[in-house]
Amino acid sequence: MNITRKILIFLFLFLSAEVTSWSQIDSTFKIFQFPADKIPRIDGNIDDWAMVPSTYIIGNEQLRDDNRKHLTLDTNNLNVKVRVGWVKGMNRLYFLYEAYDNYWDFSLPGLHHDIFEIVVDGDQSGGPLIEQFHPNPQLKNSWDAYFNFHGVQAQNYHIFTPALGEDWCLAWGSQPWIKELPWANAAYNYNFKPGEPGKLILEFYITPFDYAGPEGPVRAVESVLRENRNIGLCWAIIDFDDVNAKGNNGFWNLSDKHTMYGNASQLRTFKLMPLEPQFAKKIDAKWSFILLSMARREVSFQDESTGNITSWKWDFGDGKFSTEQNPIHKYENAGRYVVILNIEGPDGKSQRAKVWDVAVK
After folding, report:
1. pLDDT for 267-324, tens place per residue?
2. Which residue, of 272, 305, 327, is where some domain finishes?
3. Which of 158, 200, 281, 313 sits 20 to 30 Å CA-CA off 264?
C-alpha cells in the first residue's frame, strides 16, 4: 500500500469518526411535572428540586464544544447539570442550573460574560427565529426582520451567569418584556467574585410564546403546555476563562447544530411528563364542559379523570343522570346547576362537584 493511499484511508477514517461523534442522537429529554402544591419558589434554593429524580438531570455528557477547542468537557474546568420542570395548567418552564466553573467571567456589562443560552419553541413550529436567518434575502439583518420576525415564534434568552449590576438576561429579540414578571423570574445563589472559581445555582422560569411581538403582551399568545406533549428546547453554555481574551473558551451545545441559537428546527425534543407515580392519586375525578348551544341549553361534558376507571356516573343537577364517560346533556330550564361526577375503579372511588359553573338561560 503506497503512502498516498494510506493518507487517504486515514483521512476517511478520521472524518468519518468526526462526523459520527457529532451526529445528533435521536432522543427525547424529559420535563418533570411538579405537583400543583409543590411549585418551586424562585429563590436560588435547590430544596424544591429534591423531589426530581436523577433521570431528569441533563449533564456534561450531553454537551459538545461547537468551537472544537475541546474534545470532551474537563469537569475541573466546567461542570454543569440542568433540570427542567413544569406545572400542569401553567404555561411556564422551570429551570435549575447548577454549574461549577474554575473561572467565572462576569465583570463586564456586555456579552463578554459567562452565559447560559436558552432557546425554546413551545409549539415546535420550527424554522429560523433571528433576523440574520430570515428566509427572504432582502430582509436579512434589516429592522423590518428584527421587529416583525426576531424572537416572534420562538425565543432566545442569553442568561448572564451570574448577573451583576445588569438584567438577569438578554431576551434576544424585539420583545424584552418576556424576561420580566409575570412571564419570567430568576434568582441566583453564589459566593465567588469575578475571576474566581466556585459553584453557581441559578433558578428561573420562562414563558414560551407561539407569538411574542414588540408591541408587548397585548397581542401575545402563550404556548399551551399539555401533558405528554413535546416542545422544542435547547441550550448552550458559553464559557469565558479570561477577561482579556477576545473569544470564549468553549461553546458547549446541547444540539449538534451550532446555529440552533437562531433556528428552532435544530432544537432538541423535550416531553412534558405526567406526574411521577409517587405524586399522583391512584384515582381522581376531574371534568370540564363546553356550552354547545345557549339557545338549546345543550352542554358537552368531558371526563378528564385519572386512574384505572371502570364506571362513571354524572348528576347534572336537574334530576337527570348519565353513565357515559363524555355525555352531552340538554337542560330543559334555565338555571345554575351543581354538577357531580362520581367514578369508580379497582383502586377506589372519587367525586368531583362544581357549584354553579354550569349556567344556562
Report:
1. 999 999 999 999 999 999 999 999 999 999 999 999 999 999 999 999 999 999 999 9
2. 272
3. 200
Query: What is the arithmetic mean of pLDDT over 6-22?
Result: 38
Q: How high is the pLDDT of residue 9? A: 39
Say how far apart CA 164 and CA 321 lie, in whole Å. 62
pTM over 0.90: no
Any domain includes 15: no
CB count, 10 Å around CB of 215? 12
Do you find a cis peptide bond into 162, omega within 30 degrees of 0? Answer: yes
Q: Which residues, in sequence order, are CB contacts of 60 under 8 Å at separation 6+?
A: 73, 75, 78, 79, 80, 81
Task: Check pLDDT > 90 for residue 11.
Answer: no
My answer on whether 72 and 141 are in the same domain is: yes
Domain count, the chain: 2
Shared-domain flag, residues 299 and 231 = no
Q: Mean pLDDT lowest for which of 20-34, 98-112, 122-136? A: 20-34
Measure the CA–CA gap between 235 and 253, rounded to whole angstroms.
6
Helices (H) and strands (E) in the chain, counts: 2, 24
3-state SS, residue 146: helix
> Do residues 148 and 293 share a domain?
no
CATH of residue 328's domain is 2.60.40.10
The SS3 assignment for 169 reads: strand
- The x, y and z cell numbers of residue 14, run together, are 478520521
| Backbone φ and ψ of 355, nearest 5° | -90, 115
- Residue 104's domain comprises 27-272
- 326 pLDDT tier (thresholds 50, 70, 90): very high
Q: What residues pair up with 238 in beta bridges, in sequence order?
A: 115, 251
Distance CA(110)–CA(105), nearest Å, equals: 11
